[in-house]
Target: Vesicular inhibitory amino acid transporter
Amino acid sequence: MATLLRSKLSNVATSVSHKSQAKMSGMFARMGFQAATDEEAVGFAHCDDLDMEHRQGLQMDILKSEGGEEGAETPLEGDIHYQRDGTGPLPPFASKEAYSELSGQGKPKITAWEAGWNVTNAIQGMFVLGLPYAILHGGYLGLFLIIFAAVVCCYTGKILIACLYEENEDGEIVRVRDSYVDIANACCAPRFPTLGGRIVNVAQIIELVMTCILYVVVSGNLMYNSFPNLPVSQKSWSIIATAVLLPCAFLKNLKAVSKFSLLCTLAHFVINILVIAYCLSRARDWAWDKVKFYIDVKKFPISIGIIVFSYTSQIFLPSLEGNMQNPKEFHCMMNWTHIAACILKGLFALVAYLTWADETKEVITDNLPSTIRAVVNIFLVAKALLSYPLPFFAAVEVLERSLFQDGNRAFFPNCYGGDGRLKSWGLTLRCALVVFTLLMAIYVPHFALLMGLTGSLTGAGLCFLLPSLFHLKLLWRKLLWHHVFFDVAIFVIGGICSVSGFIHSLEGLIEAFRTNAED
Model:
């Protein structure tokens, strides 16, 4: 019996460890195609409300064995360890339907087209509005960088998925990991088995919070430029936008918000078409002579971050691929989504820059005539406000799970009561996060600088550096020489661009912060 108990405890402990590492990706695309309604790439879908396994199955305070034949393996109460193929014992508390969902059976899968829509939402979102500003400081080199970033992000997305698989004893390729965090932890094992996951978590939190800040900044900017005659400053508009967003602290799930996000995404495509149509109507005045093979040494590194940030989608690709009906179609899906993104982004950025040339602003809709600017910007503000809850809720989930709900490894007491309700101090922390995004938007109200900083720091790290490094670490014995060359080249180039863009963006932000503090 002692041997049986030790075996069971070992199985459950393994399940707990795997659950802790995989929980990060659980909020990504866990709801299948519903992620397609999410905005930006933050195409994150909320995890099931503390799923049944986490709530009940892993409670090990009661372990009983019922009498039976000697040597027979009797199920233990509270032990719901189940195998991936669904052959494990049925949990005593769960119905067959619930068990089917827990074991992955019956979970709705998405087609390659639906997966492509998720990726398109991630890389064709609202932040495309900053690309013409990147062409302003990079000329034709900026256009080349849009193409180069698409090729590299497509490649690193594929090699990141390759890191999820290994060859078993029978020579078959099987999926042994589930998330970006799992890959990072595998690379740092056995000396630092959780270090890689913590690095990825920190990078993700930074990117999510910065995305929230960008939504507040762009809301204040658009409203201020839409109604310049009103006695309301950009900071005041940002405060008003934050007041509207404060109820996000009370969110329990994103089902209602995600429905609105689909309409906002469609509206955004319509707005892009309207901007391009206006630019085409002024084709006779296009300033082709302004597009040159030169770069602004001080500001072009910021443009690199802007372009990279507009392609970020790697963080949720493992979950997306795992939810596809036919994972073999993943490579093809990545190809056509990034080719389409490259063409549309390049055309949008070039056409917009040719129309306004040196007068191109950080957010291109601010260049539109006042007659249509207000209407377009109001739609964009509504889209930004409805998109804010998605990265905010994802950031809250990561923080709560890593700091307050990670069992004995949690740094602080659980922010949820025994009845599952959020404690008052937990709600206060959520409100503080909303206020923090407001303060950053007020003191650094520069869309391009913040976008460049985020793209250089977390965008380049998650899209360029880490995938190539993980690919070399996990699969280097099976890689062909040209794969090794590509990985090393991407790591080196990505590192240089990341450091350069981060330094210049940080210098610009410090200068802007000082200027605002003096005012």
Summary: The chain has one domain: 124-518. The radius of gyration is 24 Å. The first helix runs from residue 2 to 26. The domain at 124-518 is CATH 1.20.1740 (Amino acid/polyamine transporter I).
